[in-house]
Design goal:
alpha+beta, about 725 residues, five-stranded mixed sheet, two-stranded antiparallel ribbon
């Protein structure tokens, strides 16, 4: 019944492109009905003063449990009303009223669940983190009970089948997707099978949480002691996150193997042995995730089999644009093959332009990021520090504000954080309002929080978290709120690398999808659309990072205020075209591995099975060698959040290329371009079938269909890849 939070709707950007979608889905076996009860809570139950994350009533960690109880009590009341209007009582209530109540239940629970998901990933106080985790898990247990409630299911079926003609198109789609969720949750199963499904669903949640926690726990991902003399080339500021235990006095740095630090070392360390040692150590763990991933794949496979699917990959793709895993598999194999020659040229260019420093004629896993940086600098005469000097954080934020004003006609205004809503002193708040085009100027649309600097125990990658969904129409409309969580250096004077600017724009694409959504029902709001469509706006926004006109808005020198020189912009754009094929092959490897490991038969799983699949896929579809003894999949959080659907990233690259070419390439700042995207895609969220959205915006040729499924046409994307070859 209740949509899983789109908290991660959000790249392990450092590992792949970003972490997005859901970290976890539905939880089971937690609260008893006695614990959930509908009895009145503490005397301050009716305290509706806004609190942390602007959630009314959330003022201290213990409030999470109280708010969860209140959400359950309200949901129970709605549930009883719905069940009483089942087959016999239905004539007294309209089909629309049934859908409205179901969406009210979903919104009531998500108001707490979504905030808990964000809180447990960003709050610096462990008391808040633990309280949020408990509320999150416990409410997911209640959700699972609702999802197996046959009275709710029958009320929905009656509304859909007997009185569906009275439903609006959006309400009808809510009914369709809710019914799919019920049936994919095993509502039709008998007692024993349903109990098995509940157990495996609970295992999936717990194991998924454990996998992600190991990626942010210093004890799990570990550290290395590295001589300072071997860290030449690594900017000192990027090692500010080193763990206790190393110092200049001892002669070594204790380098944590978190993704941010590892990426910095692999990108900048001049010493090949340093890069090799850090790479091998980082990509051999966290070892604890080996057993966790094994259990997660087993639980997902068993759930899919109970529901009658051949594998989890078949289960996950069946309600989406793809419809069947063979559709994305064929696209991914085609893309990897068609860029193979170009990838070979790029690898040769890495070696040639970097002077083959310390190389044996082969680009190894630990060399790729470093060599790309060197090759780009030599080929395009680019200095990363010089480029970054044109992207002070303050300028980038204001430039993005100017961009969305020009393109979408909305204004971003930074406003003071209320003391009760703030979870850290460095968090900032942007109010989104209507611009000066037409009626409604100055009307508040939504809120975007920016949590952009790294700190201990914070979610270590870049992500978009939903706090509150858009819902309703008119003056009483519920305005959306989201948080963009990144890790961009530190300090108000921080500058961003161009890659970080691209990351920020990627996340802002998700934010625009959320805040510009205009749906009656929160169940289909913003990023609560088909998983293989959710990355399209974010990938489209990445194009802005490379456009000269947009860079005119984003880039100003941090000292002089001068715009970025045209020559530098030209060199920056030339650098984009240097290594697109190896990047694309890597994305195909990630996506194909995700599909293949979710098609494994657990009966054949051994300790090394998943690593063997990852190595086999890489050897077949990438020119980068497999590094013996490594298990990169143990760090690949998308296996949790994008289970069987990481192909959404390559899908999004194809669609974004088509959208950019049709609406933005000629004049990316033209108001009509943004309006076409807003009206054709963003405002609908998940309220329209994804194939219909794409065909309406791009024509019938936008999708390739075969007997089993659908995939976007990669022609434009591959043309962009080969532009300038």
């Amino acid at each position: 019944l209740v949509s899983a939070p789109r908290g991660m709707a959000g790249p392990l950007r450092a590992v792949a492109r970003r972490v997005a979608g859901n970290l976890v889905s539905r939880q089971v076996n937690v609260w008893s009905r006695a614990n959930l009860g509908t009895a009145a809570a503490a005397s301050h139950l009716d305290d509706d003063r806004k609190g942390l994350f602007a959630l009314p009533g959330l003022h201290e960690p213990s409030d999470f449990a109280r708010l969860a109880r209140r959400a359950v009590a309200r949901s129970d009341d709605l549930m009883r009303r719905l069940v009483s209007s089942g087959p016999s009582g239905f004539p007294h209530r309209s089909a629309t009223a049934v859908i409205d109540d179901l969406d009210e239940i979903s919104d009531t629970l998500c108001a707490v669940v979504d905030v808990a998901e964000l809180c447990r990933n960003v709050h610096p106080d462990l008391r808040w983190v633990r309280a949020a985790e408990n509320a999150y898990v416990e409410l997911q247990g209640y959700v699972q009970g609702l999802n197996s409630n046959r009275g709710l299911y029958l009320a929905l079926v009656n509304a859909q089948e007997r009185h569906g003609a009275e439903l609006s198109p959006e309400a009808a789609r809510v009914a369709l997707t809710l019914r799919q969720d019920f049936e994919r949750g095993g509502i039709h199963l008998g007692g024993d099978e349903h109990a098995r499904l509940e157990k495996t669903a609970g295992d999936v949640i717990k194991l998924g949480m454990a996998f992600q926690q190991n990626l942010s726990d210093p004890k799990a991902f570990g550290h290395m002691d590295v001589s300072w003399l071997r860290l030449g080339g690594v900017p000192a500021g990027l090692l500010s996150s080193t763990a206790e235990g190393g110092s200049r006095d001892t002669g070594f740095a204790r380098v944590p193997l978190d993704q941010r630090t590892v990426s910095a070392v692999l990108r900048y360390a001049d010493e090949p042995d340093t890069r090799r040692s850090v790479y091998l150590a980082a990509h051999s763990g966290p070892e604890a995730n080996r057993a966790v991933l094994d259990g997660l794949l087993r639980a997902r496979h068993e759930s899919a089999k109970i529901l009658g699917f051949e594998s989890h990959a078949h289960f996950a793709t069946s309600p989406l644009l793809a419809e069947h895993p063979d559709a994305p598999r064929a696209l991914l194999e085609r893309m990897a093959s068609e860029c193979r020659d170009r990838a070979g040229e790029e690898i040769e260019a890495m070696l040639r332009l970097a002077g083959r420093d310390g190389m044996d004629g082969t680009v190894r896993g630990w060399d790729r990021s470093y060599l790309i940086g060197k090759a780009r600098a030599k080929a395009c005469e680019l200095d990363a520090a010089a480029v970054a000097s044109y992207f002070p954080l303050e300028r980038v934020i204001s430039g993005v504000g100017a961009l969305v004003d020009r393109v979408f006609g909305v204004k971003l205004t930074e406003v003071a954080m209320e003391p009760w809503e703030n979870w850290h002193a460095k968090v900032r708040k942007l109010r989104v309002t209507s611009g000066d085009r037409g009626a409604g100027e100055g009307q508040e649309i939504g809120t975007i929080y920016l949590d952009l600097e790294p700190r201990p125990r914070k979610f270590p990658h870049a992500a978009h978290f939903v706090i509150r969904c858009s819902r309703g129409v008119g003056p009483d409309k519920q305005r959306p709120a989201v948080a963009l969580v990144c890790n961009f250096g530190a300090g108000s004077a921080a500058t961003l690398s161009h890659s970080e600017v691209e990351t920020f724009l990627h996340e802002f694409g998700h934010a625009m999808h959320s805040v510009l959504s205009d749906t009656q029902y929160q169940h289909l709001s913003g990023t609560r659309c088909a998983m293989d469509m959710v990355e399209v706006p974010s990938h489209l926004f990445e194009y802005f990072a490379w456009d000269p006109a947009v860079l005119g808005l984003l880039a100003r020198h941090r000292v002089t205020g001068d715009p970025m020189p045209r020559e530098m912009i030209a060199r920056l754009r030339a650098s984009k075209e240097l290594f697109g094929a190896t990047d694309l092959q890597q994305q195909c490897v990630f996506a194909l591995t995700d599909l293949e490991v979710h098609a494994l038969d657990p009966a054949t799983l051994t300790e090394g099975s998943v690593s063997d699949v990852a190595a086999r896929v890489q050897a077949a579809h990438s020119l980068m060698p497999v590094e013996p003894g490594t298990s990169w999949e143990l760090r690949f959080g998308h296996l949790v959040g994008y289970a069987s659907t990481y192909y959404s990233y390559p899908y999004a690259k194809c669609v974004a290329a088509d959208l950019w070419g049709k609406f933005f390439r000629e004049d990316p700042l033209a108001p009509g371009a943004g309006e076409a995207l807003r009206e054709g895609m963003l405002r609908h969220g998940g309220a329209r079938e994804p194939g219909a959205i794409l065909r309406d915006m791009l024509g019938d040729g936008a999708l390739m269909t075969d007997p089993v499924g659908a995939a976007p046409d990669p022609t434009s994307m591959l043309a962009d890849l080969n532009r300038g070859r």
